[in-house]
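Researcher: Let's continue the batch. This sequence belongs to VTT domain-containing protein, and it's 167 residues. Same format as the previous ones, please.
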Amino acid sequence: MEAWSQLLEWLALPQFGLSTVLVVSFVSATLLPLGSEPAVFGLIQLNPELFWPAILVASTGNTLGGAVSWWMGRGAHQVTNRLRGRKTESQALAWLERFGPRACLLSWLPVVGDPLCAVAGWLKLPFWPCVFYMAIGKFLRYLAMTTALLAMVPGKSEGLAQMLWFW
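Model: Same format as before. Here are the structure tokens for VTT domain-containing protein:
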């Protein structure tokens, strides 16, 4: 347990902040229960000048994690079909299939977003369009959540949210 504590302390150093955000956002986009927003917010609170790099790195890590979930869903579908000897479909899958890759815009949602990426793989929706829509949804989530948190919590980054021209 002490090794984990030392690793977390090391990764929290400012020079490793963006790599920590990348790893945490990647892992949080898989089916593991972990939130990456505190890591992004904490880094930006400590280093306001890293606002855009942190948002972009978190979006990238989260999108890559979603892509891994997509591949896990596709692999699970293939294994299930082999074991059952027939195709598996349901009403919910048919509904999601109707929306196609655009459904991956909802990958930012808590609880259902990460499994949604796996279901997209299960349905064999086209990989690159799914990743594209995942990236848009995840970027907008990080941008909105971090900006809102910065506006609510005073600190070193006070006024950073006001500097964003589109808010």
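Researcher: Any comment?
Model: DSSP finds eight helices and no strands in the chain.
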